Each structure stands twice: as C-alpha cells, then as structure tokens.
Amino acid sequence: MKKLIIIASTAILLVSCGRSLSGDGGELTGVSAPNWSEPSPHGMVLIKRGSFEMGPTEQDSLWGNYQNPKGVSIDAFWMDETEITNAQYRQFVYWVRDSIIRERLFDPAYGGNDLFKITEDKNGDPIDPPILDWRRPIPSERRASEDELNAIKSVNWTNPITGEIKLDPKQMIYRYSVFDATGYALRRNRLDPADRVKNTDIVVDPDEVVMISKDTAYINEDGVIISETITRPLSSIWDFLNTYIVNIYPDETVWVNDFNNANNETYMRLYFNHPGYNDYPVVGVSWEQATAFCHWRTEYLKRSVDPNFRNSIEPYRLPTEAEFEYAARSGKTENSYPWKAQGVTSEKDCFLANFKPGDGNYTKDGHLITAKVASYSPNEFGLYDMAGNVAEWTSTAFLESGPEIMSDMNPEYRYNAAKEDPYAMKKKAVRGGSWKDPAHFIRSDVRSFEYQNEQRSYIGFRCVRTQVGFSKVKTKSAKGK
C-alpha cells in the first residue's frame, strides 16, 4: 500500500512541475524555465541587436584618422537615455553617507545603542537582556541625543579657516566584491585537473600548480585604502572573488586642475552640490568610481526585486567601446555623428551638440561648460548627448590596435591592471567627446583614452544592462534595421 502511495505522489509531482505530461505520448516536450519578464529599467532605452562597421569609414590625414573599419555584431542592451547627472550620483554618495551614520548610531562609542535596543517582544513581555537590532526604524517623533547628533555630524568636515561645513570626501568609502565568472569558466582555471585538457593523448598532471591573480583591498590602521593584486596557487572558487574599496566622492578640484590660469573656482565650489546643477552630467569621477556606481546601482535595484528572481537581474555596467559606438551611430555605419548630417549644425544652422565651436569660443553653441542633459535632440535610438557635453567612460581597456584584436561578436578587451603594472597599462577607452573638444573629437568613430584613476571636468559616464529574455516595451531602432 505504501509503495502505491509513493508512486502516486511521484506522478502528481511530475504533472504539477512544468508542463503537464498527460497526453504527450512519450514524446520530448521540454520543461520550461520559470517565467521572468525583465521590467523596463527606469530612464533607459532598449537598443536592438544588430551589426555595423566599427571604426573610421573615411580617411582624414589631418587628424591621423585612417580608414580601417571592422564588421561587428552587438547583442541587445539597455542604455541610459542621458549621462548620469549630479543628482543621480549624489544619491549614491548620500547612500554611502547614511550607511556610515547608521553604523555609528549603533556603535557604543557614539552612545547610540539605546536607539536600537528591543526591550519587549511582540506580546509586550520584557526581553532580558535586550536585543540590539540596527535595522529597527527610528521613530520620527523621537529627538536625537547629543551622542547621536555627534554621529550624524561626524561625516562632515569643517574648513578651519572659512568655517564652511560640508561632507567629508575622505570618509565616502564604498566596498564591494565581484565574482569573476569569466576567469572561473576558463578551462585552464578548472579546479579539477582532469577538466583542464580535453585531448585524451595528453596525460594530465594531477599535481599541476595553477597560479591565479585576484584583487583585494583593505583599510590599514591609519585609515588608508590599500589595494593589492595577489598571485597565488589556485585553491578554491573563492580565488575568483575580487574585492574593491573605492572613495566615491567626485574630485571637485578638477575645474581648477584641468585649466591653468582660469577663474573656475565657482565651479569647484558649486558644480556638484548646488541645486542649479542637479540635471547636469556628473564630472570628476574616475573609471574606478563609475564602476563602483554601477555595482551599487545593481545592488540597490536587487533590494526591490522578489528574492526568487534577484539572480535573474543583469548587472548595470559601463558600456563596451563597441556598444557605445553602435548606440551613438544609431546602428548605421554611414553615420559619423549621432545624427544624419555630416556636420555639427542642422539645416537651420542650429548646433546639434555641446562642444567647442571655435578657437577660444565655447559659447557659440549656447553653453560655456557642460549643459543640462537632454538639451539637444536625441539620436534615432532615443539617446541624448552621445556626442559632446561630457566624454564618457567605457569598460574597454585602451590599446592603439583597438577593434583589430577584438572578436567580431560583442567585441571587448578587458584588462584589470594590477597596482604594480606600468601606468600605461591602466588606460580605458573614452568615447563621445566633450564640451571642451572641437567638432572632430565628438565624432562617433573617434577613439580616446584616459587613465582609470584619473578624474576630469569633461568626463562622465552612463550605464548599460544586457537585455535578456523578452520585454514588453517597444524597441527604438534605426530604420531598415
């Protein structure tokens, strides 16, 4: 009797999981994966998959621009409509600030423990000893104690000369870890030696030592961030977890350091924090800081998603160099700029982007420095400021050979430079040109670079996400694609 019950239960289980097996006649029908319809990311445009000729399509000996295009194909991806703004990046900075304050409110050194003491259970019965729970919401009507106010004030810095009080940039530290799935997948890095070689004519050495490099970081006793690349024998999957600690506050001094003998102190004081610049692209952010922002944005999104589907969320990241050029040119090889015209003005002689129109003349296009994002018309993909305003970081490591060494499918060249590597190996590709560049450098097919830890008043970024599955939104694509 028990055997019959077990068999019947198993049959019910098989029928209830996936498609019903009833009436299939023993044919292969497949089992569907759990249905996951990716929500439309806020403020992003879905770029349709396609192919184009990457690189300059015409000779220009004056600028050293030589025709050497390469046919490549790009999978579909989401892309921010505009560059990340000061207001959006400030959300990241304030999240880090609030996290620090929250920890200090829980720290006995700041006298904040009472705030998080739970002295009664749900039935009102006393708990002895009290439980400390830092997640406990703070009653809005409760007045903060002097110690708690000190915890809140501790993230600020006061200029001893001017008395100005502002957020302390040195304390805005973000720590995150990334699993290197690509490195883990490489056959030479398999934990089981038998899996490293498929050639059955070769005898696998079970004692072979595989050396692996991983990035790690910590804060020393003096509060200094120490970043290292460790090379050691492969021992476990944890060797592919890279840890980073990044100071994420923008360098406001770029407005002074990028321009000698210029009166740019006003931008240094106000550009990132004044509400008048809320919708302007953030600048003074390095490639390392932009990458940290992408990780934070991913984790911030995951907190709002059903836990069962969090692993289905594709991470935010910087666009590859190929993705940026494809998106800027609206998927069309013949477009030298994000618009159809071959010049930088419309038929009505209106400027199509924010750049430097003439020698010493920054204002002819209506702006002196950056402009509010989306001040100009979008390209055919619905993307704004893909030329000019600020140049933008990509995820691609910069080499002079560029696309020539990359695959023709989702081309990308990545190199995570170790601290000990020569500085020349820490170049990252920058695209789009900026408000300070002449017309040639805002072309969609022109490459540039900057060092990954450098911050500039003319470089910002935007995020992308690989598109998976299907979406209910309409795709914006170039005509004929």
What does this structure look like?
With 481 residues, the protein is of the alpha+beta class. The protein contains 8 helices and 17 strands. The strands form 7 sheets. It has a 4-stranded mixed beta sheet with strand order 15-14-13-16. A 3-stranded antiparallel beta sheet has the order 1-4-17, with no helix packed on it. It has a two-stranded antiparallel sheet with strand order 2-3. A hairpin with a 5-residue loop joins strand 10 (211-219) and strand 11 (225-233). It is globular. Mean pLDDT is 86; it is low at 1-21 and 473-481.
SSE layout:
Elements: H1 2-16, E1 44-47, E2 50-54, E3 70-74, E4 77-80, H2 86-106, E5 117-120, E6 126-132, H3 146-153, E7 156-158, E8 165-167, E9 173-179, H4 181-185, E10 211-219, E11 225-233, E12 241-247, H5 254-257, H6 265-270, H7 287-302, H8 321-328, E13 391-397, E14 427-431, E15 448-451, E16 459-460, E17 464-466
Parallel strand pairs: 13-16
Antiparallel strand pairs: 1-4, 2-3, 4-17, 5-6, 7-8, 9-12, 10-11, 13-14, 14-15
